[in-house]
């Protein structure tokens, strides 16, 4: 199946093929989650699927890069994202503040990317342990897809690198509130030489996205991409595309995080003007990097879709003139297509809540 070349074909394929497939796979995981023996693990598993379906829907779009391998790629993306959302719920909503607990849980993501690795004792630092095989089943599903992936051995180091950043972010950001920022800054300090052009909060934001994993897994099935191209895919997504993705996510939640007293990466710029300029910089570098990848028009279209999804959020519109100015500047950078995506997302979101 050809990669969609314009908004109309993308929308049609997303609505008729991608989203129904996402929902079918998620329905299977929901059925398995309902059978989890431990009530707290069951509650968090079901809540993560119910509240974060849009994460899998967004990730599922990347299967359009996989051609004839879209179905198995969808199995991988839905399972991997479901692991991420489930573990995030366990860390966010639980009482534990033990970094070793968070690291043990998120070992599941590394295992999911390593076919042949047996299930770990992921719950060993917490009292709730009996998930009826739910998390190991998610891990095995990812492994079973990757073991048959012809480019697996070449993309594996890149996937593990991205999963490692994600795991460490989850470890550091869920500890006691007073420890979070010092730990995150120290973590970035250890990586500054590799990423000298970004700030600590931008490195942390980039670490919190799964888009690079999905892009690499989706577009390498023919095993016809050189190692240099695969490296450039990873470098386009980390830190640039992933950084913009999660910075926008934090921007949307800025008021909520302030009320809750939670760290928000957007609050660690010198002022609003600096934040605005850094967002623009991340978009420009992302867009330029995507131009040099396979299917550049499609990948750049997805980048503009990311802008539209977050900038059209009702919570963004409640943040006043500065947020609106940021939105207008980013949409101007994205051009007519970004504005068109934005208009459609804006109408869809508000129609959905009427």
Description:
It is a single chain. Helix content is 72%, strand content 0%. It is mostly helical and 354 residues long. The chain folds into two domains: 1-148, no CATH class; 150-354, no CATH class. Helix 1 packs antiparallel against helix 2 (39-51), helix 1 crosses helix 3 (53-60) and helix 4 packs antiparallel against helix 5 (99-112).
Task: Outline the fold blueprint.
Layout: H1 7-33, H2 39-51, H3 53-60, H4 70-93, H5 99-112, H6 134-146, H7 152-173, H8 177-189, H9 200-207, H10 211-219, H11 227-252, H12 254-260, H13 272-291, H14 296-311, H15 314-317, H16 321-352
Quick tags:
354 residues, 2 domains, 16 helices
Number of distinct helices: 16
Q: How is the main sheet built? A: none
Tell me the domain tally. Answer: 2
Secondary-structure element order, N to C: HHHHHHHHHHHHHHHH
What Rg is obtained from the alpha carbons, in whole angstroms?
19 Å
Q: What percentage of the residues does DSSP assign to strands (E)?
A: under 5%
Number of strands: 0
Low-pLDDT windows of residues: none
**Roughly what is the average pLDDT, rounded to an integer?**
94
* Shape call: globular
């Amino acid at each position: 199946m050809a990669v969609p070349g314009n908004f109309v074909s993308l929308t049609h394929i997303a609505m008729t093929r991608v989203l129904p497939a996402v929902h079918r796979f998620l329905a299977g995981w929901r059925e398995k989650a309902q059978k989890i023996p431990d009530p707290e693990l069951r509650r968090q598993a079901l809540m993560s699927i119910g509240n974060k379906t849009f994460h899998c829907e967004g990730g599922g779009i990347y299967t359009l890069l996989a051609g004839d391998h879209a179905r198995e790629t969808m199995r991988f993306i839905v399972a991997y994202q479901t692991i991420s959302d489930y573990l995030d719920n366990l860390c966010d909503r639980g009482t534990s503040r033990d970094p070793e607990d968070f690291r043990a849980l998120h070992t599941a993501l590394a295992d999911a990317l390593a076919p042949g690795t047996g299930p770990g004792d992921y719950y060993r630092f917490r009292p709730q342990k009996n998930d009826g095989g739910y998390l190991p089943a998610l891990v095995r599903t990812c492994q079973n897809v990757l073991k048959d992936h012809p480019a697996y051995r070449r993309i594996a180091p890149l996937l593990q690198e991205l999963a490692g950043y994600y795991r460490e972010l989850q470890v550091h950001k869920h500890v006691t509130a007073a420890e979070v920022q010092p730990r995150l800054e120290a973590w970035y300090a250890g990586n500054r030489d590799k990423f000298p052009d970004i700030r600590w909060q931008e490195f942390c934001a980039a670490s919190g996205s799964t888009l690079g994993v999905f892009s690499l897994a989706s577009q390498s099935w023919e095993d016809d991409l050189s190692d240099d191209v695969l490296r450039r895919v990873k470098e386009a997504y980390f830190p640039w595309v992933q950084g913009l993705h999660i910075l926008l996510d934090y921007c949307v939640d800025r008021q909520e995080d302030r009320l809750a007293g939670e760290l928000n990466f957007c609050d660690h710029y010198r002022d609003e003007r600096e934040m605005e300029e850094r967002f623009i910089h991340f978009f420009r570098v992302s867009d330029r990097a995507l131009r040099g990848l396979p299917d550049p028009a499609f990948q750049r279209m997805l980048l503009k879709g990311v802008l539209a999804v977050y900038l059209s959020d009702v919570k963004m519109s409640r943040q006043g003139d500065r947020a609106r100015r940021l939105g207008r500047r980013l949409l101007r950078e994205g051009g007519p297509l970004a504005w068109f995506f934005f208009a459609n997302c804006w109408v869809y979101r508000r129609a959905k809540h009427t």
